[in-house]
Specification:
The chain is mainly α and 402 residues long. The strands form five sheets. A three-stranded antiparallel sheet has the order 1-2-3. A hairpin with a 2-residue loop joins strand 9 and strand 10.
């Protein structure tokens, strides 16, 4: 048995960090007092660069984060922040002509990339449904349901299953060369896209338990089990053509551990006991592979592997957040204290290496030599409060449950 005092200490530290250190940054220095919403880009020492775009991803994630926080701690400030984010994404990012959300805005709010990247639409659903769960807002739910219909109509692959990556503004399928970001391959399908559609549809199903959403959520789970997960290694492949033929040879430990608990969450929401039992076995196998291959003696999770070897030993912030949740989930499933110890080590690593005690928030990346990568910003279109806030909320829920 784990001593209750140990769990309480862990829980208290997480709570103090989230509400005392982390969220104040997003309620203060990160706000854009000039053009509304939040700053598009801040360096580690909080210097802005207004030439950088305001991205759909980070703004949807901000909306999700404050909505989720309000559900746990319903304070006026968190409601104010959630409503600020809701107004921004509803009014600035929505395409009134064709439906769906634009990918990028200039700092002034002008649309500079009108493509419909499904990854971004998924985060919009995730955020809107969380806002609806927090505040009972019918407009948020209606738009989330509209987005579901648009994705299903234009991006779902009826022949081979799953979802295509990128559509044009009018929802026609984008041509060759379209991809999520400069780091991604120009392939028809990706693990990352499907992971976040899964996440979004789980929340959408949580709101209304609509049968059509359940069908797609079940399909997504099966796609992970039959196409995305390597049955031999228990790692997730990254990229595929439309027939689900693998087009990549590396895996990211952060996505593996994140998927291990998100798949459990999706199966739990569906309420299918047989499916859930199957998923829990696989989730534990995935967590074990991450622990054995990517978890460092310092408590940090390495970024990327290939063929059982680490090819990028950097410690980015978001994999540490997902490791915290994933290892707690593995402990809940197995009772194996090794995973609780791993979660505690991860939390210690975050506190010692990632938390910026001077300027707030977390550093983006610790390089393999153990130094902060100062070239990477504190805030950007890809770096917001989603992973860390969710990790803290999930950890609090799980630790208090234990």
């Amino acid at each position: 048995m784990i001593p209750p005092a140990e769990l309480k200490k862990f829980s208290t530290e997480v709570s103090d960090h989230l509400f005392g250190h982390y969220l104040p940054f997003w309620c203060g220095p990160a706000l854009d007092q000039k053009n509304g919403g939040w700053m598009a880009w801040l360096s580690n020492d909080l210097q802005p660069d207004r030439s950088q775009p305001k991205g759909l991803i980070v703004n949807a994630r901000i909306l999700w984060a404050f909505s989720a926080v309000y559900r746990v701690k319903p304070e006026p400030l968190f409601k104010q922040m959630a409503e600020r984010a809701f107004e921004f994404v509803m009014n600035k990012f929505w395409d009134a002509k064709h439906g769906g959300a634009f990918w990028r805005l200039a700092d002034t709010g002008k649309v500079i990339d009108d493509s419909k990247k499904i990854y971004g639409q998924a985060f919009y659903i995730y955020a809107l449904t969380e806002f609806h769960l927090a505040f009972g807002n019918p407009a948020a739910l209606a738009r989330a349901q509209e987005l579901f219909e648009l994705i299903e109509r234009h991006a779902h692959d009826a022949k081979f299953g799953g979802y295509l990556e990128v559509c044009n503004r009018d929802w026609s399928v984008a041509g060759a060369g379209a991809r999520l970001s400069e780091k991604d391959l120009a392939e028809k399908k990706s693990m990352n896209n499907h992971l976040h559609v899964l996440e979004a549809y789980t929340n959408l199903y949580r709101v209304g338990h609509e049968p059509r959403v359940a069908v797609r959520l079940r399909e997504l789970i099966e796609i992970f089990l039959t196409h995305i997960l390597d049955a031999r290694t228990k790692h997730l492949h990254h990229f595929f053509n439309e027939r689900w033929e693998v087009r990549s040879d590396t895996y990211t430990f952060g996505h593996d551990i994140e998927a291990s608990w998100l798949l459990c969450e999706a199966a739990e929401e569906l309420g299918d006991a047989k499916l859930l039992a199957r998923i829990r076995v696989i989730a534990l196998q995935m967590a074990e592979a991450v622990f054995n291959e990517g978890f460092g003696a310092d408590g940090g999770l390495c970024y990327e592997g290939r063929d059982g070897k680490i090819v990028d030993a950097g410690r980015e912030c978001w994999p540490q957040a997902e490791a915290l949740v994933g290892f707690l989930n593995a402990f809940e499933l197995s009772g194996n204290k090794v995973y609780l110890a791993a979660a505690e080590q991860t939390w210690k690593y975050i506190g010692q290496h990632l938390v910026d005690r001077e300027h707030g928030e977390w550093f983006w990346r610790i390089n393999p030599e153990g130094q902060v990568d100062q070239k990477l910003p504190k805030v950007s279109e890809w770096k917001g409060p989603y992973h860390a806030t969710r990790a803290c909320l999930e950890s609090l829920k799980r630790l208090r449950g234990l």
